[in-house]
Automatic annotation (TrEMBL):
<keyword id="KW-1133">Transmembrane helix</keyword>
<feature type="transmembrane region" description="Helical">
    <location>
        <begin position="92"/>
        <end position="111"/>
    </location>
</feature>
<protein>
    <submittedName>
        <fullName>Two pore domain potassium channel family protein</fullName>
    </submittedName>
</protein>
<dbReference type="InterPro" id="IPR013099">
    <property type="entry name" value="K_chnl_dom"/>
</dbReference>
<keyword id="KW-0407">Ion channel</keyword>
<keyword id="KW-0813">Transport</keyword>
<dbReference type="GO" id="GO:0034220">
    <property type="term" value="P:monoatomic ion transmembrane transport"/>
</dbReference>
<keyword id="KW-0812">Transmembrane</keyword>
<keyword id="KW-0472">Membrane</keyword>
<dbReference type="Pfam" id="PF07885">
    <property type="entry name" value="Ion_trans_2"/>
</dbReference>
<feature type="domain" description="Potassium channel">
    <location>
        <begin position="33"/>
        <end position="109"/>
    </location>
</feature>
<feature type="transmembrane region" description="Helical">
    <location>
        <begin position="20"/>
        <end position="44"/>
    </location>
</feature>
<keyword id="KW-0406">Ion transport</keyword>
Length: 125
C-alpha cells in the first residue's frame, strides 16, 4: 500500500483492470449477458429457421445460453447453421474474457474489503 502525506491509503490498481468501473458486479452483469445472448439466439432462429436444432421458444434460447455459459452442452439444443455457430463462438469468447474479468474485479473488491475490515479490527487505520 502507498501512503500519502495525509495518512490515507491509496489502492493499487492492477494494470489490466484499469478502466473497469468499480461498480462492475457479476451479480448485475451476468444476467444482462444471458438475456442479450438468449434474445440474439431467439431472433437468429426466428429470422433464419434451421440455424438451431431444438430451439423453438424463448425458453429454449435462454436454456441454450445458460448451458453454453456453464459449458455443460447437453446436446438437445445445438447450433446447426453458420450464423448460430458464429453467435455461439462469440458468446463463448465473451464468456471467457469478460465474465472472467468481472469475477476478477469482484474478487479484488472482496479482498480489499476484507483487508480493510481486518485492519479496523486490529485497531490499525
Amino acid at each position: 500500500m502507498v501512503v500519502r502525506s495525509t495518512g490515507r491509503r491509496r489502492r493499487r490498481r492492477t494494470p489490466w483492470l484499469t478502466g473497469v468501473p468499480a461498480c462492475s458486479s457479476p451479480g448485475l452483469s451476468v444476467p444482462a449477458v444471458v438475456v442479450f445472448f438468449a434474445v440474439s439466439y431467439y431472433l437468429i432462429e426466428r429470422n433464419t429457421p434451421g440455424e438451431f436444432e431444438g430451439l423453438a421458444t424463448r425458453t429454449d434460447a435462454l436454456f441454450y445460453t445458460v448451458v453454453t455459459l456453464r459449458t455443460v452442452g447437453y446436446g438437445d439444443v445445438h447450433a446447426a447453421g453458420q450464423a448460430a455457430r458464429a453467435g455461439t463462438t462469440v458468446q463463448i469468447t465473451f464468456d471467457l474474457v469478460v465474465v472472467g474479468a468481472l469475477f476478477a474485479v469482484a474478487s479484488a473488491q472482496m479482498v480489499d474489503r476484507l483487508r480493510a475490515h481486518s485492519g479496523r479490527a486490529d485497531g490499525r487505520r
